[in-house]
């Protein structure tokens, strides 16, 4: 296998295909990134810039992020990153092994981050549920907000937009809608 294709295989997202009807409860909405959005060069550049930033910040702690979806969901890396950036000590267990303790940890970290970012939970483009479910879009929104707040000079690519498919389960079946979501500002 060529190194490039191996790299792409390792970067392949866990969830690409829109869900089957049975995975969405009636009235539930979920956002999905189609493969074309995931492969957009500016989108990939943003992910790379954020991973390099996190890895640089957490280098003294020997923490390495390889995937924003897989490595951020349980709150461990967000916990270390937020404490380093904000200079705060959060009262939460260091290692969370169970799903319930990971959610608790993520809840504490996101509450502190939202407070620091001065974002109401209802206005945030991320939530405990979305981050815990490895929602890359929500994770990116959170990381971009943290970078803007704590490291405004970080050179993130400008005007990164992605096409998003929103799926909703209704009484009459699945409804989908395409939209464009802005991840970084125009400069």
From TrEMBL:
UniProt keyword Repeat, yes or no: yes
Q: Name one GO molecular function term.
A: actin binding
The answer to whether keyword Oxidoreductase applies is no
**GO cellular component, as recorded:** cytoskeleton; focal adhesion
Where does it reside?
Cell junction, Focal adhesion; Cytoplasm, Cytoskeleton
Basic and acidic residues composition-biased segments = 27-39
Show the SUPFAM superfamilies listed in the entry.
Answer: Calponin-homology domain, CH-domain
Tell me which UniProt keywords the record has, alphabetically: Actin-binding, Cell adhesion, Cytoplasm, Cytoskeleton, Repeat
Top-rank taxon, per record: Eukaryota
Any Pfam family the entry gives: CH
Q: Which InterPro entries match?
A: CH_dom, CH_dom_sf, Parvin
Coiled-coil residue spans = none
PROSITE patterns per UniProt:
CH
Q: Return the annotated region ranges for Disordered.
A: 1-39
Q: Which residues form the Calponin-homology (CH) domain?
A: 44-151
Gene3D superfamilies hit by this protein? Calponin-like domain
GO BP, one example?
Answer: cell adhesion
Q: Which family does it belong to?
A: Belongs to the parvin family.
Q: What is this protein called?
A: Calponin-homology (CH) domain-containing protein
Taxonomy of origin reads:
Eukaryota, Metazoa, Chordata, Craniata, Vertebrata
């Amino acid at each position: 296998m060529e190194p490039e294709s191996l790299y792409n295989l390792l970067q392949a997202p866990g969830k690409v295909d829109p869900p089957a009807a049975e995975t969405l409860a009636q009235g539930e909405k979920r956002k999905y990134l189609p493969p074309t959005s995931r492969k957009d060069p500016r989108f990939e550049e943003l992910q790379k810039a954020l991973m390099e930033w996190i890895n640089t910040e957490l280098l003294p702690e020997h923490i390495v992020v390889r995937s924003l979806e897989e490595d951020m969901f349980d709150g461990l890396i967000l916990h270390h990153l937020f404490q380093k950036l904000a200079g705060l000590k959060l009262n939460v267990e260091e290692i969370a092994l169970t799903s319930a303790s990971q959610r608790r940890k993520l809840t504490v970290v996101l509450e502190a981050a939202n407070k620091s970012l001065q974002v109401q939970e209802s206005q945030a483009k991320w939530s405990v549920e979305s981050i815990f479910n490895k929602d890359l879009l929500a994770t990116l929104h959170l990381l971009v907000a943290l970078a803007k707040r704590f490291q405004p000079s970080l050179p993130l690519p400008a005007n990164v937009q992605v096409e998003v498919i929103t799926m909703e389960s209704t009484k009459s079946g699945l409804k989908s809608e395409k939209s464009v979501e802005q991840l970084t500002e125009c400069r």
